């Protein structure tokens, strides 16, 4: 009797152990791939409590979360023969757990190697100016290059690729700095020249307007004298009307009269320390 009881207890213990061994917990962010005697079963196990056949089945869980992979800096030569070092970040996730387990060993390491080689390839196709100014296009091209050999064969989809840093040689940095300074200086000169041209155009228009109104010259003269006197200078320079010189010329005085288009002459100077205090 005791022997049969021991056998029943042993059988019950084995049954409990097999039942416990057949239960698997699949988390929300995981999918389970079941192998039966080494052959993968169709379909994947969804999150929750899942049962497998003890001894015959083996479940391998695969995370379907987005994985961030840092691509170390890669030295490459651009299309215009500039040596740069670029590092990037690759965001990817598993979309087919069966392919990720069966078709490739250590898919994370494989994606990292593909990302490094693809990064050097894309850098070699672009010139330096495009690499620095159009990072979005470079990132999109890099994503397409990495995604091509990974999604269909390995069941891994590249979500996003971002260039993190672009390291340039010191000589190239100095050259770019000088180029930027020269460009800013060119813009400043162009702006100054354009301002001079607009000012000269306005002055010419004002001169023509004042030429039609003789009294405007006297008003402008008085305004200039007022502006100079406000500075409390000790010397005052004033234009002298040429009509007075012509009057003396007609009277017989030996005076040389220069001819001007506006009828004024700015050669006479009244000075001798006019004190405004």
UniProtKB/TrEMBL annotation:
Q: Where is the Band domain?
A: 21-180
| InterPro entries cross-referenced by the UniProt entry | Band-7_stomatin-like, Band_7, Band_7/SPFH_dom_sf, Stomatin_HflK_fam
Signal peptide positions on this chain: none
SMART domains membership: PHB (SM00244)
Q: Which GO terms describe its cellular component?
A: plasma membrane; side of membrane
List the SUPFAM superfamilies: Band 7/SPFH domain (SSF117892)
Q: Which domain of life is it from?
A: Bacteria
Record-stated family:
Belongs to the band 7/mec-2 family.
| PANTHER family attached to this UniProt entry | AT06885P-RELATED (PTHR10264:SF19), BAND 7 PROTEIN-RELATED (PTHR10264)
What protein name is recorded for this chain? Peptidase
What species was this sequence derived from? Pseudonocardia hydrocarbonoxydans
């Amino acid at each position: 009797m005791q022997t049969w009881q021991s056998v029943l207890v042993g059988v019950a213990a084995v049954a409990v152990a097999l039942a416990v061994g057949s239960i698997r917990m699949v988390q929300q962010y995981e999918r389970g791939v079941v192998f039966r005697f080494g052959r993968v079963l169709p379909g994947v196990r969804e999150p929750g409590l899942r049962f497998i056949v003890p001894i015959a089945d083996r479940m391998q869980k695969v995370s379907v979360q987005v994985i961030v992979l840092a691509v170390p800096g890669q030295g490459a030569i651009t299309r215009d023969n500039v040596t740069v070092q670029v590092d990037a970040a690759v965001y990817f996730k598993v979309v087919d757990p069966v392919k990720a387990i069966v078709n490739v060993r250590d898919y994370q390491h494989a994606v990292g190697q593909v990302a490094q080689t693809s990064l050097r390839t894309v850098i070699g196709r672009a010139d330096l100016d495009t690499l620095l100014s159009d990072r979005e296009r470079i990132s999109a091209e890099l994503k397409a290059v990495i995604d091509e050999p990974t999604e269909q064969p390995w069941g891994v989809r590249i979500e996003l690729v971002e260039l993190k840093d672009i390291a340039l040689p010191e000589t190239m940095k100095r050259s770019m700095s000088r180029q930027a300074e020269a460009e800013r200086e060119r813009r400043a000169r162009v702006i100054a020249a354009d301002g001079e041209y607009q000012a000269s155009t306005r002055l010419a228009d004002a001169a023509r307007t004042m030429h039609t109104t003789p009294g405007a010259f006297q008003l402008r003269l008085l305004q200039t004298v007022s502006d100079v006197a406000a500075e409390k200078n000790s010397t005052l320079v004033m234009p002298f009307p040429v009509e007075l010189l012509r009057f003396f010329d007609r009277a017989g005085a030996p005076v040389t009269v220069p001819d001007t288009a506006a009828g004024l002459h700015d050669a006479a100077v009244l000075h001798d320390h006019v004190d405004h205090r």
